[in-house]
């Protein structure tokens, strides 16, 4: 079993967490999706033979740009969500209103 960590942009509420989970869970080999909303981090576990690119593509298709956390330019300090989410008047696109 392997784990891939992602930094996901645009998540601002529980509805966003649900949409991100629904975008990733059906992918082949995914057995668990853990979303940490405050940090914008998502941990995907399973037999992930397809690698991180398919996870990033699935999230992009759902409206949530993402990067692999293995990228050294992404740190936990820099991963705080931006105030452009749905509750602050931005275009989070989650439809939670």
Largest sheet: 4 strands, antiparallel
Q: What gross morphology would you assign?
A: globular
Helix/strand-derived category reads alpha+beta
How far from one another are the termini?
Answer: 37 Å
Give the overall pLDDT as a whole number: 81
- Unreliable parts: 74-85
CATH class descriptor name? Alpha Beta
**Gyration radius from CA atoms, angstroms:** 13 Å
Secondary structure: helix percent: 10-25%
Percent of sequence in beta strands:
15-25%
Counting structural domains, the number is 1
Count of distinct strands: 4
Strand order of the largest sheet: 2-3-1-4
CATH topology: Alpha-Beta Plaits
Q: What is the ordering of alpha helices and beta strands?
A: EHEEHE
Characterize the quaternary organization of these chains.
Answer: single chain
The CATH architecture would be: 2-Layer Sandwich
Count of individual helical segments: 2
Summed up, what is this model?
With 97 residues, this protein is an alpha+beta fold.
Overall description:
The chain is an alpha+beta fold. It has a single domain (2-73), classed as Alpha-Beta Plaits, CATH 3.30.70.100. It contains two helices and four strands. It has helices at 14-24, 52-61; strands at 2-8, 30-36, 41-46, 66-68. It has a four-stranded antiparallel sheet, with helices on one face. Strand 2 (30-36) and strand 3 (41-46) form a beta hairpin. The longest helix has 11 residues, at 14-24. It is globular and about 30 Å long. The termini are far apart.
């Amino acid at each position: 079993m392997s784990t891939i960590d992602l930094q996901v942009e645009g998540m601002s509420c529980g509805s966003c967490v649900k949409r991100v989970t629904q975008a990733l869970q059906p992918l082949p080999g995914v057995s668990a999706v853990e979303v940490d909303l405050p940090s914008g981090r998502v941990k995907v576990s399973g037999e992930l033979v397809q690698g991180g690119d398919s996870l990033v593509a699935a999230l992009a298709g759902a409206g949530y740009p993402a990067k692999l956390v293995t990228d050294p330019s992404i740190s936990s300090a820099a991963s705080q969500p931006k105030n452009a989410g749905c509750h602050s008047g931005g275009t989070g696109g989650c439809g939670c209103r």
